[in-house]
Design a protein that fits this description.
Length: 398
């Protein structure tokens, strides 16, 4: 499942380094046209995925998660195969749109594993699985660039589609879905309105989803500007490669720390680890605005990757511990929607901020988001803790 999540996540971002060049192979277009449609084609996948992820989660809760995994896995592979044969900009746009529709694989896989994992070990297990998802998204541009340089655009899509097909086939024969029963009062099916009411009533859960959104906004806000930012420190000819390394090394940091944060969350509470990770993320993101060499930037990006490595798995583990199994898939879908929304908003917000105030200002703004989220989570946890203590006091007095 880890391998499948890695390549599914990577498939969504791998076109980033060569998307504009691939569009140029369709005809003679102006630079403005190519830049505009590169943004549309890249962003449409995440925008559509933002809208449909909760639906896939709901379908998985109702009809079985393995069925949804197979449908979406082969659907993504099919879209990748067709991308290798597309000959028009509009055709590529609609294939990326279709890919967004079937990108329900990741939240469904999280729901499947979460449902079969004990609450006590949720952080460790889901942290390991989440490493594949986060690392795939971050390593995707690097893998896409290497494949495109080595075998060309067409074979890049064919190879990726083949790997995802193999991963889906491994799910077909290697994953067994075990139906876990819980208390009948919790196991009943709920309407979408009831699920949204449940989410709205849990302020910590809402904050957990906002944290997922902020991580993606911060991480992707600098991505389109990274090559220009790296160019300020070096005159090397391989600036694109160095920029890709600076972006993808965050995924390496994720790989080294995600499981550790998950284990600590199981031990002392995922809300507390989430708060710590938000603070540390802001601390390591801020100095990236002040670096004077590419290696300083890469080092800080690695440490930043270690810090954010605990945010997503702890968010997922918190959902596993607090949400009834009968609606976990849908709630995880909402959490994934917030992440997809961050993928869309990040580059847009980063571009606007950089255009008005300079590239360094992107780091300052994103750092403020991390600290603001940490402050909000702190006060919510403090408030919830006070309510819990009052309830215990009333029980003792009663």
């Amino acid at each position: 499942m880890w391998i499948a999540n890695f390549f599914v996540s990577a498939s969504a971002t791998m076109v980033l380094p060569f998307l504009s060049m691939y569009i140029e192979t369709f005809g003679s277009y102006s630079p403005t046209y190519v830049q505009r449609w590169s943004g549309f084609i890249f962003g449409i996948t995440f925008l559509v995925a933002f809208l449909v992820s909760p639906l896939w989660g709901r379908f998985g809760d109702k009809f079985g998660r393995k069925k949804i995994l197979l449908f979406t896995g082969y659907g993504i592979a099919f879209s990748m195969f067709l991308m290798s044969y597309v000959e028009t900009v509009s055709g590529l746009f609609f294939l990326r749109l279709f890919m967004g529709i079937v990108t329900g694989f990741i939240p469904t896989s999280m729901a499947l594993i979460a449902a079969q994992t004990t609450r006590e070990n949720a952080g460790k297990v889901l942290g390991t699985l989440q490493m594949g998802t986060v690392s795939g998204g971050l390593f995707g541009p690097l893998l896409g660039g290497l494949l495109a340089d080595s075998v060309g655009f067409t074979y890049t899509f064919l190879i990726t589609g083949s790997v995802i097909s193999i991963a889906a086939t491994l799910v077909l024969f290697g994953i067994k879905e075990v139906q876990v029963k819980e208390d009948k009062s919790l196991d009943r099916k709920r309407s979408m309105k009831e699920v949204l009411q449940f989410v709205y009533a849990d302020k910590v859960l809402i904050m957990v989803m906002i944290a997922s959104l902020i991580v993606q906004i911060a991480n992707f806000s600098i991505q389109p500007q990274l090559a220009l930012y790296v160019g300020q420190f070096t005159n090397a000819e391989n600036i694109a490669f160095l920029a890709g390394m600076a972006f993808s090394v965050t995924g390496l940091g994720n790989l080294t720390a995600t499981r550790f944060w998950g284990v600590q969350g199981d031990r002392i509470g995922h809300q507390k680890i989430l708060l710590v990770c938000l603070l540390i993320s802001g601390i390591f993101f801020l100095p990236q605005a002040l670096v004077s060499s590419i290696w300083q930037l890469i080092g800080l990006r690695f440490l930043f990757g270690m810090a954010i490595g605990g945010i997503i798995p702890c968010a997922t583990a918190y959902i596993r511990q607090t949400v009834p199994l009968s609606m976990q898939g849908e709630v995880l879908g909402y959490n994934q929607s917030f992440r997809f929304l961050g993928n869309v908003l990040g580059p847009v917000c980063g571009g606007i901020v950089a255009g008005f105030f300079g590239i360094s200002s992107v780091f300052y703004v994103s750092t403020c988001l991390f600290f603001l989220a940490a402050l909000m989570l702190y006060f919510i946890l403090r408030h919830e803790g006070a309510k819990l203590r009052n309830k215990r006091r009333l029980r003792m007095n009663g």
